[in-house]
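Ticket #4471: structure output looks truncated?

Reporter: J.K.
Steps to reproduce: submitted the chain below (185 residues) through the standard prediction queue, then opened the result file.
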Amino acid sequence: NHALPGNAIFDDSVTAMLSLRHDRYSVFFREFELCHVATQRQRDDAAALRYRVYCEERGFEPESASRRESDVHDAYARQCLIYHRRTGTAAACIRVVPASAGVLLPLEEACGERLSSGYRERISHQRSAVCEVSRFAVDPAFRRAIVGSSPLGDDESPYAASFGERSSLNLLSTMALLCSLAIAE
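Returned output as attached by the reporter:
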């Protein structure tokens, strides 16, 4: 169990998901591990995955020598990683940034006055109950396997997926989003 102390809702949510009997879910939890980011290694794994997606692949953020994508919000955000058990690869990540007095959410920072006045007003009146889900990323190799744009097990793939992995890959996004809901709760 990698959850931070005091994060019982996350633990309970993962336990509930593990109890599902549907085969795809069973296979998913055999092949992948949900992890509430708590260690420096996990933070590094999330930052490296985000770098591959947001900097190298998409060009949304500038590339850097550190090969890590992070920002000031990571200091107080809660993150979830989904590890591919067999390879130890960080397959997906997502973070939840809580709103607080005097600190802008990433969206507020990026968009500022372009946000509607109604939206800005609602956030300002409910800051203690607002959070932002951001930096959602699925490793490109896993994502390509999901959409079938590259065959699994080819020489360019970092892993050769088992039949069970192939049947559960499309749950990566869903599980990351469910983790963000559990963390936000």
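Triage note (M.O.): checked the attachment and the full token line is present. Residues 1-5, 151-155 have pLDDT under 50 and may be disordered.
Status: closed, working as intended.
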